[in-house]
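Q: Please design a sequence for this.
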């Protein structure tokens, strides 16, 4: 996708051939900056502090993190330690574990002197595969938007509600939930996106709105609790969200607050779709209630960054001094509340049979 007319991916190999460049998402939307990852620790810190975030991008960053580790030590012991270190940075997104497994397979039977080149090759493939996967998610999800648009009066937009950021900034390019939106917009279908602010880190207000605006997609930022009200008044045609982990039975873990949107959608007969790549499916789990839910630092709840009138970016306290806080980063939406799963292979029901219909090799 483009920023100020220039095409960017969210992560790429630097010109020196060794380090890795990323868009620093902690600086958005007020400042657009890139950061350089030169060591394993840089990659781990980028994942933990959410310089990179979104399940697919976390996986891609971890893949390059293995490459950075191999520059220092290509022994089996060092590889095991690097993978263990990266795996513990964010526990909910299954793409992290998938990408690390892919990297281990790519290098484990090779001589040490061949491992680094093979690792960089596989990491680049993971990134390219993610771009194509998201593009295919977009083509399948586009059909949903086209069908809704066909029932609208000429020029009337399809109103889409999304939560958190499942855009190209959360992937390598295109995004998951946003890919169908971009394709519909580029095709000339009128669309309008209700963007949940997504407390406490405001990924919707800061990131989704940033990238939609950069692409020219009409959108409106709303507070997290406005979605149900809009649904009650017929102002939402469809909900499309992303996910950090989908279990084999169709339960969906996504940013905290997604479950409440799904409940409101069910009560108001609004279709609720989840867009995801195959790498986000955890075939080892059949119950979303046992997905590990990350607890993030309470300062994310008690403080908020913002830009002053003079352009200075500061962090301010917003809560009652001395009050404790909790910060579960994700919740789980039961499969019964999900209208369908949009994947790179097509759209299916959020059930074991539905997923098996697209991924028969996993039966």
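A: Design:
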């Amino acid at each position: 996708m483009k920023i100020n007319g220039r095409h960017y991916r969210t992560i790429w190999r630097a010109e020196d051939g060794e380090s890795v460049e990323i868009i620093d998402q902690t600086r958005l939307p007020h400042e657009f900056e890139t950061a350089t990852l030169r060591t394993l620790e840089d990659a781990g810190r980028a994942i933990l502090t959410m310089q990179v975030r979104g399940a697919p991008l976390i996986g891609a960053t971890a893949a390059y993190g293995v490459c950075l580790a191999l520059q220092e030590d290509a022994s089996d012991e060092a590889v095991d330690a690097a993978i263990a270190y990266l795996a513990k940075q964010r526990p909910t997104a299954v793409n992290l574990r998938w990408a690390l497994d892919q990297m281990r397979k790519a290098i484990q039977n090779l001589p040490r002197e061949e491992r680094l080149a093979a690792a960089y090759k596989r990491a680049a493939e993971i990134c390219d595969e993610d771009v194509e996967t998201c593009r295919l998610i977009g083509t399948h999800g586009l059909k949903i938007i086209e069908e809704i648009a066909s029932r609208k009066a000429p020029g009337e937009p399809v109103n889409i509600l999304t939560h958190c950021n499942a855009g190209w900034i959360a992937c390598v390019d295109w995004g998951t939930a946003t890919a169908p939106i971009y394709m519909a917009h580029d095709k000339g279908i009128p669309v309008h996106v209700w963007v949940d602010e997504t407390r406490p880190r405001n990924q919707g207000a800061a990131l989704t709105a940033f990238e939609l605006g950069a692409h020219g997609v009409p959108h409106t930022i709303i507070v997290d609790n406005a979605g149900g009200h809009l649904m009650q008044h017929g102002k939402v045609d469809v909900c499309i969200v992303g996910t950090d982990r989908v279990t084999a039975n169709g339960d969906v873990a996504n940013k905290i607050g997604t479950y409440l949107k799904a409940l409101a959608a069910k009560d108001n007969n609004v279709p609720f779709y989840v867009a995801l790549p195959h790498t986000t499916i955890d075939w080892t789990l059949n119950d979303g209630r046992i997905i590990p839910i990350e607890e993030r630092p309470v300062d994310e709840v008690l403080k908020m960054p913002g830009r002053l009138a003079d352009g200075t970016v500061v962090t301010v306290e917003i809560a009652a001094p001395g009050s404790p806080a909790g910060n579960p980063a994700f919740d789980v939406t039961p499969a019964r509340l999900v209208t369908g799963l949009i994947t790179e292979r097509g759209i299916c029901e959020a059930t074991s049979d539905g997923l098996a219909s697209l991924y028969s090799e996993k039966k």
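Q: Thanks. Anything notable?
A: Residues 134-362 form a domain with the Rossmann fold fold (CATH 3.40.50.10470). Residues 131 and 282 are 20 Å apart (CA to CA).
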